[in-house]
Amino acid sequence: MTHGRLTGACHCGAVTVSLPARPDGLSRCNCTLCTKTGAVWGYYDPADVTVTGTLDGYVRADMPEPCLSTDRCRTCGCIVQWHAIVPLDCPRMGINMNLFDPADIAGIATDHIDGRSWPL
């Protein structure tokens, strides 16, 4: 298990993510987007995250006022992160923790979020 900085990558390695430490917790959301992407989220202040490589963003078209962009590797399509496209109360972004070695996130509690119940 890593106790310092964590480094992960998409499947092809074109995008890398560097984090200051393990997240305090993980989230698995059952909204239609998260279910289809399979992401497991860890949350960070964007100032603490370094992402290298080229990303494509997706903003949900099924929401009248979308609040985030889900970004993926332009080459292999792996979901890397989400970032806010509206102001938030505190700086926050989600990182797909499936990009990291399973040993790096082993033992971290996972919350199950009922995103399907959120109003569009």
- The main sheet orders its strands as 4-9-8-7-6
Structural class: mainly beta
Name the shape in a single word: globular
What's the overall average pLDDT, rounded?
Answer: 92
Q: Tell me the total number of β-strands.
A: 10
- The total count of helices amounts to 2
CATH third-level topology of the domain at 25-100? Metal Binding Protein, Guanine Nucleotide Exchange Factor, Chain A
Radius of gyration over all CA atoms, rounded: 14 Å
Q: Please bin the fraction of helical residues.
A: under 10%
Largest sheet: 5 strands, antiparallel
CATH class of the domain at 25-100: Mainly Beta
Q: Unreliable segments (pLDDT under 50, ≥5 consecutive)?
A: none
Distance between the termini: 39 Å
CATH architecture of the domain at 25-100: Beta Complex
Q: How is the quaternary structure best described?
A: single chain
What fraction of residues sit in β-strands?
Answer: 35-45%
Q: Give, in order, the helices and strands.
A: EEEHEEEEEEHE
